[in-house]
Specification:
The protein has 549 residues and is of the alpha+beta class. Residues 415-546 form the CBM6 domain.
Length: 549
């Protein structure tokens, strides 16, 4: 069965409809998420060419290179332009071609940073108007990876996408395979990563805002739990050539407990995120280094199917609470499970093979230490510490390799989507006084919960809304509004905002419906709710999409 499972690896992705069409016909540059190191989180603008070279030497010496960490990436602050407008390194980077040669000679790949605007986030020269020349310069230096950070505002997400596409085309035209890793969230575009699939203009995209060295945050930058609560809902758009980048690893930087570091690494692996370390490899502590080199978790991240684990169970994540169960198919037919406890106290969590449609029993192996915890078992239950995650690889004879496709199979029939669904729902605006839009119990709502306090910076995003055929469809919104009439802004895929009026009936213990015409693209979509007109939007219970093909 293992050979049969591997044989359908390509079919799994194609059958999902989850990977956006590329802007060109080139084969994906990334079949699996990249692994490497980036200078920014530890050194910021103080990094130098000599430092980058010493980091590469340390990664070779401590085993990180051989564990798979191959991209060594320079971040912002390296650049200037000469009298002819060509990019060149400043005094901290006197020979970037030489740096590329140094890294390549030691078995690494060379990554660099730029921005689509006039300026980078740190105020250095951006690539606007220089895309072709800059791409040729990167190729001449032997660059293998470009981090392209959108540091200015855009009139629309489609305008921002056009800027990314311009550099992608310029990179492809050089003939050198240079990975384009984009960040659409910087500048005034906070939250852009979750409302649009960026696979048409990049090889991977930052899904959330910047990571910080902390578990949870109600202000910039994000904590680990913030990122998990958002990125875990985006599995529908991930696959070879279009990975969700959950940002750099903070492992070894000292802000997380050992339990939190284990969760950080395990969830990034389950979510098929790039594994880009940021701690100084010369001084990282032994426990953190061993985690960074854990071969079992790396194998989950680097599995050749390149699929992101899906949320198959859990409670809604509010601030740093809640729990999730993720399941991820592996190319040899095994299934990886993660039991994530985002709360501040221990919880007993469980899952089963039946939860993902796999019959029979299997062998459950702990992915932190390689110990077999159960043999011939159909399920597992374990106490997971606060902020902890249990991770298992399950080998089950005869497991159908198509379980993941069947589990997430999208059809053209009518679908209902609950606002509180932990597999789809993101609430944004968490750094406002009321911590963003919130989930609350609702006895009259279809799923027993609703999302309220939507307005201002507080938004609700519902991901993975399927349409077989592109078109404009009458989407029914079920809501609660016991006050007067309220407005909401509704977007699809981050664009096409509509102002919609929702009648108030004076009863907070009843639901109402209204129908909105929404433009959906073929495949998966994100439908967002906000209120740009003052006051609060209605509380949202669910949306219903009619047949789409």
């Amino acid at each position: 069965m293992r050979r049969a499972a591997a044989a359908v690896a390509g079919v799994l992705v194609a059958g999902l409809g989850a990977v956006p069409a590329a802007a060109d016909t080139a084969a994906p540059l990334l079949q699996v998420p990249p692994m490497g190191w980036n200078a920014w989180n530890t050194y910021g603008c103080n990094a130098t060419q000599a430092l980058i070279e010493s980091v590469a030497d340390s990664m070779a010496a401590n085993g990180m290179r051989d564990a798979g960490y191959r991209y060594v990436n320079v971040d912002d602050c390296w650049m200037t332009r000469d009298a002819n407008g060509h990019l060149t390194g400043n005094s901290n980077y006197p020979d970037l071609k030489g740096l590329g040669d140094y890294l390549h000679a030691r078995g690494f790949k060379f990554g660099i940073y730029e921005s689509p605007g006039a300026k980078t986030c740190a105020g250095y020269s951006g690539s606007a108007g220089h895309e072709t020349d800059d791409a040729n310069t990167f190729a001449s230096w032997g660059v293998d990876y470009l981090k392209y950070d959108y540091c200015e505002s855009a009139s629309s997400l489609s305008g921002q996408a056009a800027d990314f596409a311009r550099m992608r085309s310029a990179l492809r035209a050089t003939g050198r395979p240079i990975v384009l890793s984009i960040n659409p969230n910087s500048g005034n575009n906070t939250g852009a990563g979750v409302v649009r699939s960026w696979g048409d203009v990049s090889d991977q995209a930052r899904s959330t805002e910047d990571i910080g060295n902390q578990w949870w945050s109600q202000s910039w930058p994000n904590g680990i739990a913030n990122i998990v609560s958002e990125n875990a809902t985006l599995a529908w758009r991930a696959g070879p050539g279009s990975f969700n980048d959950a940002d750099m690893l903070e492992i070894g930087n000292g802000g997380l407990s050992t339990t939190e570091e284990r969760t950080h690494f395990a969830m990034w692996a389950m979510m098929a995120s790039p594994l880009i370390a940021s701690a100084n490899p010369a001084s990282v502590n032994a426990t953190s280094l061993a985690l960074l080199k854990n071969p079992r978790l790396i194998a989950i991240d680097q599995d050749s199917l390149g699929l992101q684990g899906r949320v198959v169970a859990g409670s809604r994540l509010v601030n740093s609470s809640g729990s999730l169960v993720l399941a991820k198919p592996l190319s040899n037919g095994d299934v990886a499970f993660a039991l994530y406890n985002g709360s501040d106290s221990a919880q007993t969590l469980s899952t089963s093979l039946a939860a993902v449609g796999v019959p029979g029993t299997g062998t459950w192996t702990d992915q932190y230490n390689g110990a077999v915890v159960q043999s011939g078992a159909a399920s597992v239950a374990t106490q997971v510490p606060a902020h902890g995650t249990a991770v298992y690889r399950v080998t089950t004879p005869g497991a159908p390799a198509s379980w993941y496709t069947s589990f997430v199979a999208a059809t053209a029939g009518a679908h209902g989507y609950e606002a509180e669904d932990p597999a789809r729902s993101i609430v944004a605006g968490r750094w406002t006084t009321n911590s963003g839009a919130v989930f609350s119990a609702c006895s009259v709502c279809s799923g027993g919960e609703k999302v309220g306090w939507i307005g201002g910076t507080n938004k609700l995003h519902l991901n993975g809304i399927y349409a077989r055929n592109a078109g404009t469809y009458p989407v029914t919104v079920q809501y609660v509004n016991g006050g007067g009439d309220r407005y909401a802004t509704i977007w699809t895929n981050g664009d096409n905002p509509q102002k919609v009026s929702f009648h108030g009936n004076g009863d907070w213990n009843s639901t109402q419906t209204t129908t909105v015409q929404l433009a959906l693209q073929a495949g998966y979509n994100t439908v967002s709710f906000g209120n740009e007109y003052g006051g609060w939007a209605p509380d949202i219970d669910k949306i219903s999409v009619p047949a789409t093909g």
